[in-house]
Fold each of these.
Amino acid sequence: MRKIAEYTCRYFPKICLVNVLRQWTGIVYETPDNIPIISKSGKYENLWYAAGFGTRGITLSAGAGKALAEMVAYGSTKTIPIEKFSIERFIFE
Ligand SMILES: Cc1cc2nc3c(=O)[nH]c(=O)nc-3n(C[C@H](O)[C@H](O)[C@H](O)COP(=O)(O)OP(=O)(O)OC[C@H]3O[C@@H](n4cnc5c(N)ncnc54)[C@H](O)[C@@H]3O)c2cc1C
């Protein structure tokens, strides 16, 4: 917080007049390659993944939901190529 305040005040001096009342933090989950997993399980029947969105999950939710729905309904995506999001690029499943 101290470091961020220091940088922010340097570039936006007027913001130094603002009092910070509280802050919070949490875990941002990322995959090893920073690319989400939107995929059918390679190992388990009827298991689908949409995870590992890190700090982009809200903005990606519409596309991820559409891709996942298409995969579940049709077995593959009709509109969005998502091979790069496959769980099979990892060995941890
Ligand atoms: C500080 C911060 C800032 C962010 N800022 C942005 C931003 O500006 N723009 C953006 O696009 N994204 C942002 N994100 C990322 C975004 O919030 C997430 O990517 C998104 O919420 C992920 O959605 P999700 O549904 O995949 O997972 P989640 O929202 O994490 O939902 C998972 C749900 O599963 C539940 N759950 C977990 N385990 C179990 C279990 N065993 N049984 C039952 N339920 C379970 C959890 O309680 C939770 O409700 C931010 C994230 C953080 C932490």
Amino acid sequence: MQGKTPKEIIEAVQKAGVIGAGGGGFPTHIKLNASVNTVIANGSECEPLLASDKTLLKEKPYLVIEGMKYAMAATGAKIGYIAIKGHYQDAVAAVEEVLPRDGSIKLFLLENYYPAGDEFLTVYDVTGRIIPEGGLPLHVGVVVSNVLSLAQVANAMNGKPVTERPVTVTGSVNQPQVVTVPIGTTYRDLIELAGGTLNSDDVLMEGGPMMGLIVEDPDQGIAKTTCGVVALPEDQFIIQMKNTTISQMVKKSKAACCQCYRCTDLCPRNLIGHALYPHMTMRTIDYNLSEPTDHITSTFLCSQCGVCELVACDFMLLSPRQVYAEYKSLLVSKGVKNPHTRSDISIIPEYEFRKVSLPTVIKKLGLSEYVKDTPSYGYKSPDRVRIPLNRHTGVPAMPNVVPGEKVKMGDVIAASPLDKLGAVYHASIAGKVTEVTLDWIEIEKG
Ligand code: SF4
Ligand code: SF4
């Protein structure tokens, strides 16, 4: 680590293809190209059932600390925090063992609530600073990076690109587990590693139950951002909510919203003082979008955390989250920019009391029967991977290999243009390229 300049660190991170591994997919080299006083390693992993970050912290805490040191060196930060849920005792003990003695990196124990990993909330919990509406942690002198991304920063400095990641495979499967696999391992292969699903018609979700998306094609490969794959029965509440189309939801919302206010009371972004009032948006959804009101444009402030949909509106079963997602894409397509940028914000006094505990979320989501141990199964490599090229923030990566070409693990196979926001992709197994599209590259062993 000695002697590395910020420029050298940022270049190595860019070359290794490190992006936000917690789900955001924002290129880490861009994030580190900043001047801040604080870096937070986000290890909160607040989605129910997931345990990938916790497992990493337990097994390789030294890598996260090393990555944190590089992130601090790149950004000039004087203090770093490893933010973990306080009840992850094994992970907390493992990190405590390797914390530097000079006090430059500290442990911060988060409460067990959802969504503690939302960086707006993490930054407030750890530093007491409130990120402005439409802002970034950078605006309050902070860089937040997922713990796995930081471990990958450490690997990058040792010349190792991002070719693998730990994934929690859980829910309705025979052997819930955390397994480290090559990027591009198919969802089908992951489920097989977990001993298959309990029911033949179980539905797969990528990510956690709150923010995850239904997997449409199990033969596609996991991305650098895939922290979990969760199988659930077709008739499970979450699957039913996620399968409701937006037009069904808008129709239902217009007719059934009783204006009880609970979605606003529990909205985490409202609680940190942002002008987001989902119950008001539900009241105004039949307004003409050519003249959007504040309650429509406030969609730009929504994190899509799902608290309003899956926790607050558990009686009427409406989804302000889905309504916001739809309006955001409509507004963006019309070229409307976020007009909400207040920075004179105060936290709502009820902030602490209205945090929704994870056990409550699990109960409301009907997930209690799936809360099981997820032992670490180490590294497993399939015979074939399909590496997605567009699962990061920015422009997709363009393939630079052709079918029939032999590749070694770690060879560069695709990259976004250097002058654009994007990422580099590497072969995650050695073998022959069998298929190349604009969306993925398939490699078979041998
Ligand atoms: S919780 Fe549901 S019913 Fe109540 S205001 Fe919000 S959307 Fe309407
Ligand atoms: S998804 Fe719902 S609860 Fe979450 S930030 Fe958006 S409006 Fe608030």
Amino acid sequence: MRLQGKSAIVTGAGRGIGKAIAKKFLQEGAVIVICDLEGKRLEKAREELEPFGKVHSIQADVTKREEVEKLVALANQQFGRIDILANNAGISRFESFLEITDKNWQDTLDVNLTGVFLCSQIVAQEMKKQESGAIVNMGSTNGILGEPGLAHYNATKAGVILLSKSMAIELAPYNIRVNSVCPGFILTELALEGGMSEETVRSYTAKIPLNRYGKVEEVANAFAFLASDEASFITGTELVVDGGQICQE
Ligand SMILES: NC(=O)c1ccc[n+]([C@@H]2O[C@H](COP(=O)([O-])OP(=O)(O)OC[C@H]3O[C@@H](n4cnc5c(N)ncnc54)[C@H](O)[C@@H]3O)[C@@H](O)[C@H]2O)c1
């Protein structure tokens, strides 16, 4: 129960890795507020998560300041403080660099980067008052190495990693730690919706030293560690969860 007595917000928790992070936080003893853009998906997730602990939900778009303010207000109203923020919400659209539309470029930046900025800034104001907190941001191995077809996504994830480092420095005086988790290939709806064929899944897996794709729970474990007091001297870094994929040539 590494998160006993702590309250947390998890964004984009309607499915996939975000829902796994929410479940892990509950299993570790935290009370949580989850949000997602998709209302029905969010409610289904809340029902699934309820047996594991105290969970509140609110439909919110992380790209809209007013909606993030409502999310943070709900957490404050329910728990009186916010100890942990897991910025997980993200989108990816496979398209070659020469064909990226202005809309897809902007949407990707808005959700993956501006969303992290808004949630972190608004939550950090609360954490500053209580002089403690842990923010864990969703990066990606795509923020460390390039990959064709994902230039906009890669740019946002690289941005998340450096935004996290800058926040770590500025928020350290208030005892707020900020880190990012960089998963490699985790098979979720996002990957499949992004247009990934079975053949692509096989060819990706072949490049991973551990010879398999990662599970959502394995990313959730990294979030729980960085959010917990076990990581009390860790800030401004990224934890790669990729089966060894990017440690090789
Ligand atoms: N799946 C992977 O292999 C992988 C690898 C590295 C990083 N990631 C990152 O992990 C995160 C989660 O990915 P996933 O695979 O679970 O994706 P997913 O699509 O299964 O889940 C993402 C959730 O975020 C929600 N969301 C999207 N836009 C939102 C917004 N504006 N406001 C609030 N919620 C919003 C979606 O509705 C969805 O429920 C993303 O940031 C993604 O970039 C995924």
Amino acid sequence: MHEIILKTIERICSYVPEERVLRDEPMSRHTSFRIGGPAAAFVTVNDEKELAAVMAAVTDAGAEHMMIGNGSNLLVSDEGYPGIMIKLGGDFETITRDADDPCIVRAGAAMLMSRVSAFLTENGLSGFEFASGIPGSIGGAVFMNAGAYGGEIRDVVRAVRVMDADGKNLRTLSNEEMQFSYRHSVAEDAGILILSAEMELKEDDPDEIAARVAELQFKRNSKQPVNYPSAGSTFKRPVGGYAAALIEQSGLKGYTAGGAQVSEKHSGFVINIGGASCEDVLAVMRHVRETVLSDSGILLEPEVRLINCSL
Ligand SMILES: Cc1cc2nc3c(=O)[nH]c(=O)nc-3n(C[C@H](O)[C@H](O)[C@H](O)COP(=O)(O)OP(=O)(O)OC[C@H]3O[C@@H](n4cnc5c(N)ncnc54)[C@H](O)[C@@H]3O)c2cc1C
């Protein structure tokens, strides 16, 4: 292991208890694709103080690092990740309703979308139904303005508590300051860390909200290969078309390399049909890109984030 990484891990251990600093941790345990070799270290931080100290340590040392949410949009190399993966837990897994305004809710970045949805449904708060089936965390969803069924996270987020990548400058950004666009926010450009999101919802009947959530879940389950590990839509929606339709038109449904396959159920998904390596997925993605480009002239861009690997 690189000397810088070793020294940084040592320093991190003076701020974060040893049991939350995992060495050579297989990333296949932390990604929805169930793919990825070991990260040099996988650190779970439980509060803002720990996070600030860890971010200062990696910044000072110039150590390679990245933040991980629920790992549902990542394809990690079979070689693993040579740096430090940082995940939020503890205080970042809370959700509270504002004492003065019952329509305002604050969710920590580590909260899963499904748990946020369950909380809002129970409390009779509507507006988040579209996001209930997205298998990511609030942090990951805000980072990339996740969306589904006509809604996007920017539609409900009022403000976001953030920290700079060096662990300094804790502040709150407004919805406008987040500069949300299609699967993108300012956090990506500026390397900003998302700590929590303040959302504004509307009061509604819990049973009606639950019915809408169930309907969208049914749609999702009937259209998407939810029984196989994947990272969701593999490619971004290109201008003037849909990746899934282009892939299907090129006759690539079911195209397989090793354990990776273009889903028969939804051609926008590359799935892990069993023991897929990162290289298998990349082989499928490369073939899909080349074939669609030669058939339609459209170059598909990956939506899945490629970690320590490339097309
Ligand atoms: C079956 C399936 C269905 C899916 N359906 C949808 C869908 O309908 N709509 C949709 O938009 N996506 C969908 N996805 C993709 C994925 O769930 C979303 O992109 C989700 O927002 C990723 O969140 P995450 O917490 O898993 O982030 P990760 O995959 O862990 O990370 C994604 C990026 O966010 C960054 N990040 C994560 N947390 C933070 C933080 N706190 N601060 C700063 N940066 C952070 C990471 O560094 C990384 O660059 C689907 C995925 C699967 C597997």
